[in-house]
Amino acid sequence: MMQAVCVDVPGGPENLLLQSVPRPQPKDGEVLIKVHATALNRADLLQRRGLYPPPPGESDIIGLEVAGTVDTLGPGVKRGWKPDDRVMALLCGGGYAEYVAVPEQLLMHVPPNLTLCQAAAIPEAWLTAFQLLVFVAQVKEGEVVLAHAGASGVGTAAVQLVRLFGAVPVVTAGSPEKLKMAESLGAAAGFNYKEESFAQGVHDFTGGKGANVILDCVGGSNWEQNVSSLAVDGRWVLYGTLGGRAVEGDLLGKLLSKRGHLLCSLLRSRSLQYKADLVEAFSQTVLPHFSEQGSFLTPVIDSTFNLESVAEAHRHMEANKNTGKIVITTSGFSLKFVSGLTDKRRIHRESELHRESELHRDPRGHTSGLYGSTEHGHIYLSAVKS
């Protein structure tokens, strides 16, 4: 048996329950992972509400990515995985649990300089951004890429990948703090969509040429500004509809006048072979850069909760409070980063903070988590109950 977060009935975060369920057994070609951490995605919120069910035959436990260690190999595993290997994996479901069985093609080795909590923030967000940029938009060196929600998990990954590919990232976000985060990762410009026209900002930044690629998770409410922002022959990649699905007005006519390409993509519903090809391409072209000395690639973590606090984590995301990824651990403590959030040195000290939080106990013997904030590269801590 194992502990897993289940949904009793579709609805709010209060319907997320920690229960004892059977531990999965790895099938042919699968690897059983002992999960150290998973991470939240917007799809998790939709699945909890009953709006985004898992593909047929997949686990109905929420969670699209994990990091942990290899526990057991199923029959037919061929890629040399060994017990206790540190791995991260893309999932169709099952991440909010102590164990998950995964096709071996979807596993990746965790770079040696990353903690498992950092690694949990990579598979879904970074593979989504990589897929949109490389497989779908086929971004080219020197192009301008507009990424909406530039401080989200996918957004922060996209900014860094665009830089890696020699293109120019610009972003939208809903607060000065989130724009500051995106710019600290390398965004060349940022526009607060709540206070200004991002279309005008893109126009001014590009000298009227527009963005060659738009990564759009918002949808309906942004369509006019998106078309206005798009360069002639540009690629508008739609991968979410957080701003609504309905569109009114002359979308097709305006898109046609720019010879624009509207490309739509989802990842969860893709075939195993497609995902395996994606994981292989990412592992070959991007993953090694995480280990390079002086690399600017880093998973951005907003906060860390434990399985018992998963409802709070969902509320945190639903309130749009996160900058970067929200991580959920199975190890019984929570670590929340507040304010700042722009200092890369803080991110690389995450493992030290986790070790401290695991060791910290108050005088009554209760384990505590740690609140951490950054200012001028320093980390300030205060203990809070988990």
TrEMBL record:
Residues 11-328 form the Enoyl reductase (ER) domain. The keyword GTP-binding does not apply. Residues 351-365 have a biased composition (Basic and acidic residues). SMART domains: PKS_ER (SM00829). Transmembrane segments: none annotated. Residues 351-373 are annotated as: Disordered. GO terms for molecular function: NADPH binding; quinone binding; quinone reductase (NADPH) activity. Keywords: NADP, Oxidoreductase. InterPro entries: ADH-like_C, ADH-like_N, ER, GroES-like_sf, NAD(P)-bd_dom_sf, Quinone_OxRdtase_PIG3. This is Quinone oxidoreductase PIG3. It comes from Larimichthys crocea (Large yellow croaker).
